[in-house]
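Good morning C.,

I know you're traveling, so I'll keep this short. The sequence:
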Amino acid sequence: MAEKNIQWHPGFYAGIELELKAYHLSFEQEHQLTRGPLSIDLLIIKKLMDEKIENDIAEMFCRHNVVEFKSPEDELSIDVFFKTQAYAGLYKASGETVNEIPADEVTVSLFRDVYPREMVDQLKALGFTVTQRHPGIYQIDGKLPFPTQLVVTSQLRPGQHTVLRILSNHAEQKDIEDFIKASMHYKDSGDRARADSILQVSASANKALYREIYQRGDASMCEALMEIMKDDIDKKVEQGRAEGEAKGRTEGEAQGRIAESVVIYRDEMNLDDSSIITKIRDKFGLSQETAEAYVLAER
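The tokens, ready to paste straight into the viewer:
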């Protein structure tokens, strides 16, 4: 079951940066469209040099690319479609001089994990055509000021766009495992931080699946998952320790390690109480009763 209030946008921003990391692009979040306080949750991707992008999603990109992402919890409606076109128009007009951003150098992309059938049907009724250019990528043509595409992330090619496919509340196990394996090879600290952000969102939305992967995965898979999410695990363990001190709990060094393990197994590995009890019992040589008491205390 997915958590409520998942912060999808940071995961998407991290995902699209990893997806397109091979190219010379800049990414600007929550772009301010006017001199006033109109700041919206759009992503602006700029091409920094004239290069061919051999990626299904970004092959249509021009110099300025307006990106709207809708999470699984949000609706991608006909009103959102036209609102995004309006925002793109405001962005085009936001230059310091007249026509500093030419209209033919602006594109619009709308991302969602499932196909917005109602919106597409309404667009077709208005005379627009919607054509699938690649699996999961639809070109929208008609009387629009900017080239526009719809990207349905769950329909993207498996094996090529894993980083975006796992940003869903119905992610597939192979996609998750493939992404974890790929993340093991990231050397750049920024890429590792982005991978962590993506996994945090994906794991929050697919708790049962991640629990199964951890329980059934091989040792290297489990170790990779722990290592990728290490910074966040450390943060949560420290938070748990601080909360324990605030409640007046005094624990010895051994007790602290056991309590930290319970926090990691529950919050990061999404194990159920029975599995946690077995693990800390075997790891620390506890009796069944003592292990149960530790799990109960950390709820």
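Safe travels,
E.
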